[in-house]
């Protein structure tokens, strides 16, 4: 008999053995998708990891139901990569599989499906498919379990798969819901207006509606400037719904809809490469040089030095060698300018993969990658899980960015580090690029592991912006805007230039406080104050989402003197509007950027200079490349530094350097940093643009206090609704581990920074390990300690997560 070991999307260690039905014997492949029964009732889509003839002795195997296609869906390289991740990040293969695979490709009992609304041609469906579709006529969504009552288990997944392929059903998951493909409404000119007589008459007709006339002319101007369609929303935002409706009612503009979420083929012109400047050319050659000695090279290029241009030339070289390239970007940059830039150079050989794609799009990219359709793949961190082929070069742009680390779902991997394994598999090179490299990467250069190339000149020999520190200890014009900043904004606006104001909201969200008794409403489920949301007039918990109406009186002493404390971007916006009533102001933060195309619209507006002042959180610090930003203001630099994390200084340095880099990219620019602590050496380094000295200071401290990059960290988190259970389990683990690891390499258990989230009490244990030694033993002890926990009945319900290399 033939057996297969299958990976299932479960947080259980190990693989699961099934026997192969006679008809499938000798035809299976490693990496193929199979549907298998599990437990009493469930069924899952699994991946074949091994095929063998060894009958398990301890239990009776079940038979696999079916295979989903005749070829492997996961490559051997991928499976090896998954194994590495599960060993390094101490999670199960099932955790990796669950995360690595698009949901639509791993149907299981709990998967919900619903109709797409696509026309059903009943004659083309088989009996089972008809059953499912009829069921969906009466119910909006069903899960695979329900289908079991009318289709045999064996046939469920193939049936659904077939309906998927016919585009008749889609997954119904709450998370996916958000990104459901949307029809976007666009506007076009009435085709009759091509006739200039009709056009002239039309213009006369709206002479008496000046707003409509203006909107109409702006629309025509846009149409001439752009190759893409013009969204209705954009015109509405610029004018008003009524004005735009007027133009549509008059039949001047015609509405049409397009589904925008499908991966669009690029059909515009392919642009030539820019010639590299002398400095860029030198860096380019230096990188190639270093690649003959090192597999990984760190490129530190100051902001606006044109690193992208160098990437393009390196990529081009690989393509000419017949190799593919992988380009990793922080999540946010994906929706922005870079992707368009790349498509302009490389056309349709580019695949894009990121979290805002819907399920169908993900499947499409996966299949195209497997079929080696793309020469270049661009994506956020999850791109490393695609079935990539024939890779010659992997580029990680903004390598210091924390969004390369997955922090909410297992596995808690860092894509910047994982690409080393992929590169090894393909014998490919890795280029890490940043204006502000991470301490880890510097360390690797020092250790002789990475090569190092520096590019110290901005493109066009533009000078780096001048940085001024402004003390907040002296009186300000409005609560958060100093006289100096006010003056500079004024000058900038007079010069018809744009301003970016950066306000770090982390830890500074507005809260409600009673002036009488000092009470501040807290979340019933978490140990945090509720955040005040002005627009909806609510108090909200940012950890569990708990929301309540804004109280009129203090819940504790019933006085009426409730006041908001702390500042958010909204307050800054109000102050700016008050100071500059004429200016066109926009805000960029999680609240304003929720909608799928919010970024594109905002960037378009920045580009067209329809915004004078852009106020935003961290989002404005990354990658923005606009011509006319002359001034960058940092509202409160200190809020970054005061964050209780050993990386606070590094992050501050990176953020401030990055945000400063948005200024003066075409001609001289200026940066104003407002702070309560203008003598802080870190700010002085930033002012002098001395990243190297700043980095040396930080590294010195890290070494002294046994932190990365000199030591690797592993953090174990314990969560339980009963506080003492969480604490006791954590203590139990620490006591066990102390047999092998002594102070100061083991810390805790300590309460979490927020001791309770969503009614779960949190305890943490931190382990440190010299970076130049293998963590194999340490990881073994940790796993042992968890096995010990498993054996104690009372501790079993405690939720334990291990974070290797936490940020
Ligand atoms: N060789 C070149 N020819 C023409 N334009 C260039 C060239 N190199 C760079 N540029 C332009 O200079 C600007 C800055 O380049 P780019 O955005 O690549 O910088 P960067 O190093 O990635 O900066 P940051 O780290 O701040 O994102 C871009 O608008 C780019 O188009
Ligand atoms: Zn809460």
Automatic annotation (TrEMBL):
GO molecular function of the protein, one example? ATP binding
Q: Which residues are noted in the entry as Zn(2+) 2-binding?
A: 523, 526, 541, 544
The residues that hold Zn(2+) 1 are 514, 517, 554, 557
Membrane-spanning regions, if any?
A: none
Per the UniProt entry, the Enzyme Commission number(s) are 5.6.2.4
Q: Write down the SUPFAM superfamilies for this protein, in alphabetical order.
A: P-loop containing nucleoside triphosphate hydrolases
What catalytic reaction does the record list? Couples ATP hydrolysis with the unwinding of duplex DNA by translocating in the 3'-5' direction; ATP + H2O = ADP + phosphate + H(+)
**Cofactor-binding details, from the entry:** Binds 2 zinc ions per subunit.
Per its UniProt record, what InterPro entries does this chain match? Answer: DEAD/DEAH_box_helicase_dom (IPR011545), Helicase_ATP-bd (IPR014001), Helicase_C-like (IPR001650), P-loop_NTPase (IPR027417), PriA (IPR005259), PriA_3primeBD (IPR041222), PriA_3primeBD_sf (IPR042115), PriA_C (IPR041236)
Q: Which CDD domains match?
A: DEXHc_priA, SF2_C_priA
General function of this protein? Initiates the restart of stalled replication forks, which reloads the replicative helicase on sites other than the origin of replication. Recognizes and binds to abandoned replication forks and remodels them to uncover a helicase loading site. Promotes assembly of the primosome at these replication forks.
Tell me the subunit arrangement.
Component of the replication restart primosome.
The UniProt family comment states: Belongs to the helicase family. PriA subfamily.
Name of the protein this chain belongs to: Replication restart protein PriA
